[in-house]
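Objective 1.3, modelling of assemblies. Example input:
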Amino acid sequence: MYAGKFNLNNLTRLLICNVVVITPFISSNAIAAEKNWLPELPDTVQIHGFLSQALIHTSDNNFFGTTDDNISDDFRELGINGSWRIIPDLQIAMQVVWRDAGKTDEQGLRIDYGLADYRLYSSEDSLLGIKAGRVPTPLGLYNDTRDVASTRPSIFLPQSIYFDINRNSALSADGGYFYGEQNTDWGDFSFNVGIVVPRSDDPDLTAQLAKNIQAYGDTSWISRLNYEWRGGEVRLAITYAEFNAHFSPIPAPIKFNEGQFQFKPLIFSAQYNAEKWSLTGEYEFRGQRLNNFGLFPDSDTTGEGYYLQGIYKFTSYVEGMVRYDQLIWDKDDKHGDKFSANTGAPAYSRFAKDWTVGLRFKLIPGLLLSTEYHRINGTGTISRLENPPGATKQHWDLYAIMLSYDF
Amino acid sequence: MFILFIFLLSQFASAAPPVIEKQQNIVIPVINSANQQDTISRNGLSAIFKMRLLRWNDGSAVTVFVLNDDDPLHKQFCKQILNVFPHQMRRNWDKLVFSGSGQAPILVESKEEMIEKIEKTPGSVGYLNLSDLTNGIKRLDIK
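Predicted structure (tokens):
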């Protein structure tokens, strides 16, 4: 059915675009190519990057593009970063990313991080440092590098914890961190504590609340404790953060009725890595408060999200993944019935229960082909920008295929 | 009888070289021979290859060279000396590189390039087979 609607020109354009972009990187030997097109750099300067292009199809509901009964190519990422280790204890680094994800992200170019990292103390067993600027936010196991496809276990991260609609706000924030690490005979302990002002450049963030309002990040804080046994065979983490923001109407000569928003995630993470397989689970309490909006009453809800994921490496080139991922927006209204009675919106928009299977192929070093299938109950993870009220379905399927490269 | 004894002895002797060869094939961490340091703790060695420890004991900068993730010598070094799987090392480096908090080790394409780079880079560290040691390269002993 969708084949008829899918524009062949689109596919041709996409293929040409990908071939043109990727070819210089993968000509027979990626490493040699890298050395050829980069000028001779001192050992203390490094350039790395990544790019990805996905094709997405859904049976109903749109996710990252017009995917409902259509094949969309509207999800792509391209990033490049440079770092300079000025002296062993001081590094500056910046990553610029161009990203498109349907209507949830159309801003194109942005700085995902730009920071200075200074080591106050380091020895064979311990490390203490500070970093400041725009810094990747330490949340759970995957957030720090979530924009790079090869560091994700699947094309889409489990949405219960890594809610992609608000990806920019979650990925990084402006501020400073204090961090440290201690290696002992019983494993490695590390921590991050930071004070930041969150980014507020996700189109959906304000659209969820009302039209014509602007979001501003306020002082927030984040902390994460990590434990690793045998270089990461076992990884445990606890994350707690308080993100604060406020909203103002856009034509606002007088700032009255500024609504405040607070998000307090508490995340428990665990992973076991064997040579051929891994098992990962994360659980999150999602505390959310809205105050003084005037448009609707104050609210204080706690949601929950969790997933359990298994990965098996069949060979060094092929791996398979199975995952169950569940997001509930309000623990006191798990099926969304109260919400539906109050607002008239579908009850199933308050949760998402997602079974995913995926297969991933390492074609050559750095080049990945990922495929996955999702069977989803609920629309709690889709954007209102892409899905007008009344046009959604409770049970839907999502198919995605992605080609990605990093160096 | 004597001949049989000689024959057995010669058999025994010819069986000996593979043992030495096996020792020659073990993988060891190596450094530029101008480095003042001769030993390091196991935690320290892990910290160096995880790109977390960036200075030698005398304060000079560390430069790390590694082979490709799929290279047999790299796999052997990760498993036998660092006690991790190569994909765990890759995850550590990806995290540093793509979160801006560190750098990746410098990739060399062959053992020959590893030898060449370590010989001419002060403060460098890598890994080789015992049989590959040259004048410009010395072994880094684990305490």
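Chain B has one domain: 26-142.
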